[in-house]
Amino acid sequence: EITSLLSLYGGQFSGEQEIRVNSPFWILNIPSEEMARGLMKRTVCAKSIFELWGHGRSAGELYASLKNYPMDKMLPYLQSDSTYKVHIHTFNKTLTQAQKIEKIDALEFLPFKGKVNLKNPEHIFWILEDYGMDPNNVPEEPFHLYFGRWVHGQRELIESYSVKKRHFIGNTSMDACLSFIMANHGRVKPNDVVYDPFVGTGGLLISSAHFGAYVCGTDIDYNTIHGLGKASRKNQKWRGPDENIRANLRQYGLEKYYLDALVSDSSRPIWRKGMLFDAIITDPPYGIREATRRTGSQKETVKSADRSTENHIFVSSNYHLSDIFFDLLKFAAEYLVMGGRLVYWLPIYRPEY
């Protein structure tokens, strides 16, 4: 997710940074603080972003690094008329209050001139310590230490778009956190057109609409598209008259980004040829909770009389998982704009993958 957002906003991993899956801290090169704030407004995987003043593999290395940091970059945040506090965060280890105070006092060589304000400071400085990933083998000293000024952080997106509070849901509605990760992988930006060929209750459309993209989708299930049938919510037998995808977008003030949702079979595209979509973001059906169906019959012939009835219900047949993903990749190759992204979930069997 972070890599996709860096390519969207500008920035890259630092040359000093060894990208490790098991490291909770990453060092990035970002052109401006404004871009850093923009990145944090979108990400759901990162907790906070800091202006790095120094780091090292030991306390001595950290202090030496801080002493080499340009003073002209420090001073605007250390003025006598400002307020500040220093916060300590340790990963995989808990420190006593006395240990925290000792580490903060060790920074007395920094020219702090402002007043300490623990409740509402203008500037917050953080000491970050990485004690590794193994809770059963915690070292005495951290593997790496960082010190910096807090710039921005947010995790409110996940809570405000929680599926539990959503008006229209299904048995397999995508978790809000995962849907925003998918939108970020798709590099969704304002005025994009985003399509979901297995739209279901439209959970993936919401995250894209939040970022200013116009959204649409299709699904073979007539009842889901029109909000009919049995409800998925506890203690509710049938869906209400206003339970649909449009109502979900309206709930979050995003209705203006809703293009349409149609009943259609993803294996038989209904769209005119051409590059129509900036991103295709979807969660194809798989597993026992989602039937994989497509229009058509195992029989070679279908009576013409059956087709002519006004209320004809399409005959459907099994849609094998391999065919689903083959058709999805083919569709993306034909309908995505140049540079557009296809984002989807691929089920795997871990012992054989």
From TrEMBL:
Q: Does the keyword Cytoplasm apply?
A: yes
Q: Which GO terms describe its cellular component?
A: cytoplasm; tRNA methyltransferase complex
Ribosomal RNA large subunit methyltransferase K/L-like methyltransferase domain spans which residues?
Answer: 165-296
Q: Which UniProt keywords apply?
A: Cytoplasm, Methyltransferase, RNA-binding, S-adenosyl-L-methionine, Transferase, tRNA processing, tRNA-binding
Give the family this protein belongs to, as stated in its UniProt record: Belongs to the class I-like SAM-binding methyltransferase superfamily. TRM11 methyltransferase family.
The record's function comment reads: Catalytic subunit of the TRMT11-TRM112 methyltransferase complex, that specifically mediates the S-adenosyl-L-methionine-dependent N(2)-methylation of guanosine nucleotide at position 10 (m2G10) in tRNAs. This is one of the major tRNA (guanine-N(2))-methyltransferases.
Q: What is this protein called?
A: tRNA (guanine(10)-N(2))-methyltransferase TRMT11
Q: Which species is the source of this protein?
A: Thalassarche chlororhynchos (Atlantic yellow-nosed albatross)
Q: What is the lineage of its organism?
A: Eukaryota, Metazoa, Chordata, Craniata, Vertebrata
Gene designation: Trmt11
